Structure formats: C-alpha cells, structure tokens
Amino acid sequence: MKSKIFVVLLVSISLFLSNKMAMCQNNVTSFNDKSIKYGVTEEEMKEYTAIISKYHLEPDNKTSWENFKKQLTNKDKQRLKEIFTKMNNEQQKQQFVICREATKPLPKMVPTLDQLKSWKNENLYGVWIDGKKIDNKDLNNYTNTDFDQFFVSKLYKNAKEGKRYSYQVDLMTPKYYNNYFQETIAKGDIDIFYKMSINQKSFLSR
Q1: From CA 102, how far away is CA 192, in angstroms rounded?
Q2: Phi and psi dihedrals of 106, rounded to 5?
C-alpha cells in the first residue's frame, strides 16, 4: 500500500514540475516575441531619420560621414543611441547609421629601437605620426621613447595600389595618445558607426 502511495506521489510531483517548466518556457517565448514584434514606434523611427537627415548624411558617401562625425552634437548622438538600442532586429537592419559596442582604446606601447630603425625603409613601410604622413627619413629625428603607441597594418589589394610600401605604421606621440585615449573613453560603452555597402560587401566605419 505504501509503495502505491509513493508512486502516485512521484507522478504528481513530476506532473507539477512539468507544468511549471512549460509555463516558464511560454513566458520567455511571449516576452521575446513581444520585443521582436514591437521595437520602437513609427514616430521614433521618423525621429531617428530626421536627426540623420539634418546633417545631410548620404549612404555610401564617406565624405558626408566625416562631416557628420564632426558636426553631430552630443544631444543628437545620445538620442540616436537611445532609439537604436530600442529597435528590434528588423528595424536595425534598415539603418546605415548604427550603434555598436565602442572600441576600447589601444594600450600604451612604446616601440623598440630596432623597430624604429626598420620603419625607415620606405620600400616596405609607410609611416604616419599623429595621423599625418611623413617621410621615412624623418624618423631620424626621433627616438623610440618619443612615442606612446604604434600600430602596424598590412596593405591588401586596393589599399596597396599605387604604393611602394606594403605596411602602414601609425605612431602616436604622448600628447596625441593621451588625447586619443581620453576621447575614446568619453564615447562610453556604445558608439555610432556608419554601415557602408561596397561591391555587395558591408563594412563599418567609425
């Protein structure tokens, strides 16, 4: 008799737990469906477009994007972030100005003397200091501790066309690096990017 009661009790507990799990799953599904379905209102979508339009930003136009970045006010930038992060996936896909997790600032990294010497080779390296192209021989005026950050990137295909060198070296002086670091941090956790479409391939530009 006790064994029968025990079996009945186990069955009851199992049914109870199964019903609870089903209810939880249904709640999760309905929440997700709601967020995917609704996103932001039509008025907010129009507001998002209006903010971008007043700066005359055009799709697939890098020049207008550079002007947009310089002229965009903090108030408008914050509002774009607020609206975009509330959009559902479909609404976000329609935009060419998007918000993503901000890029972290590059860490301080002083080049070695050997690296500085190798970058004097104009047949292999193109050199920029604080965002400006210089003659490789100008590196003779510097020592390695004159820089707080460097980044070397290889040039491919279109980027290599018409250039003697195969690598680009970007150097930052301490003052320039400090400004860059502070500006990057000030952007917060979310930054605004420009999604361009070239040759049916998309890329993001900050």
Answers
A1: 8
A2: -65, 140
Residue with tokens 């709601």: 34
CB 113 within 8 A of CB 142: no
Total residue count of the chain as it appears in this document: 206
Partners of 152 in the beta sheet?
Answer: 169
Residue 189 is inside which H or E element, if any?
none
Residue 150 burial (CB < 10 Å; 0-12/13-18/19+)?
buried
pLDDT in tens, 56-77: 888 777 778 888 888 988 899 8
Phi and psi based region of residue 18 (left: phi greater than 0; alpha: psi -120 to 50; beta: remaining):
alpha
Which candidate, 175, 115, 166, 123, places its Cα nearest to that of 143? 115
- Complete DSSP assignment for 80-134: HHHHHHHS-HHHHHT-SEEEEEPPPPPPP-PPPHHHHHHTT-TTTEEEEETTEEE
Q: How far is CA 148 from CA 107, 119, 129, 143, 179, in A?
A: 9, 16, 11, 11, 12
The whole-number pLDDT of residue 189 equals 67
- How far is 76 from 197, CA to CA, in rounded Å? 24
**pLDDT exceeds cutoff 50 at 144:** yes
CA 134 to CA 36: how far, in whole Å?
A: 51
Amino acid residing at 119: W
